[in-house]
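Hey all, quick one. A colleague (J.T.) asked me to put the zinc ion job into the tracker so the inputs and the structure tokens live in one place instead of scattered across chat threads. No bug as far as I know, just bookkeeping. Sequence used:
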Amino acid sequence: MIAIMVYRPDGPGPGRLSEVRLDVGVTGPAEMSCAEVTVRDERGGDLLGGPDLVFDPAAGGGPLATAQAERQARAFGIGNAVYWAQQLLRRVNSALRHPLPPLLLRIGMHGTPSRWGGGHYRLPGVASPAEPNQLSATGEVHLGGGRAYLPKAKDGGNAYFHAPAHNSAIVLHEVGHHICRHTADFRVNRRRPAGDQHNGKIALDEGTSDFLTAFMLGTPDIYRWQRGQLPPTDPRRRLLRAGATMAHLRPGSGGLAHSNGTIWASALWTAYQRVLDSGADKDRFLRMVIRGMAGLGATEAPTADEQFRRTQFCELLAETVAVDPALAPTVLAAMAEHGIKPDTSNVELREQLRADRARVVH
Ligand SMILES: [Zn+2]
């Protein structure tokens, strides 16, 4: 067990700075590991060599910070990322009753030619941007080193360099994709060659990852730190909310997976609240979500059929409620508020809801 500093979600901005004792080891000059995840800063330097691992986030460090502040900020990022990844993966492994393949999380990736402020989950195969190195066969999370400063807080706080590893929501969302890959396996990658995996994400993948983030942070407003200035209904805010229904579903793929995913994430959040109201505990609902995904990914139909089936909200709903029949009526009622119903395709759900709305208006 080592003592490190992390951001807990109950605080403004990036969260409340807290010391935690964590079951991880220091396994390199810029690397921490446990059974579930290895986190490494790829930009070089001895970040973790000293006797003390309680680092200052140093407002994210960044190009204007001193070398000492930048070193503190990067070391803090390793600790914050390993903490949140471990917390989520341990809960999921316990829900599944078996461990997912270990995850490699690399910080400071894709920093040239320009700085990168995002995160992604990658499997070996075609990807954009192209990956410079061989990737782990079981999947990797890559975080950029940060690209920009967040605007100064209204209370006069300092400008913060938005290092993705300091943003617990970005870490959790990308770890969520690893969980999806090894449960629902939305792209049926298990049947593809190990070196030719499909890296595209569908709405259910994005939505489940956002829900898992909200579950861990205890808030539906997961990206409020960097996107809090956007209106709550702006799709880029990705706030999990009651008004996100299948009427908002935009057909096609491409850049719409995140906003379409908000519908699924919001419906899961509503269902989760109702389940808590009924007196059931939070891990019971997580068990439904995770085992439901494992159920979706366990079928043996031909690949083309499976690829379509696994995009359908109603199919994942059916697998989810089958996990816990006693909670099924509660979850089905909550999902119906978002226009998600059994045995009805995504397109039919959208058309039904739009027709209902037109009837009310006329
Ligand atoms: Zn990458």
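Adding what we noticed when we looked at it: Strands lie at 2-8, 16-22, 25-28, 31-33, 37-41, 103-107, 119-122, 140-143, 149-150, 160-161. The chain is about 40% helix and 10% strand.
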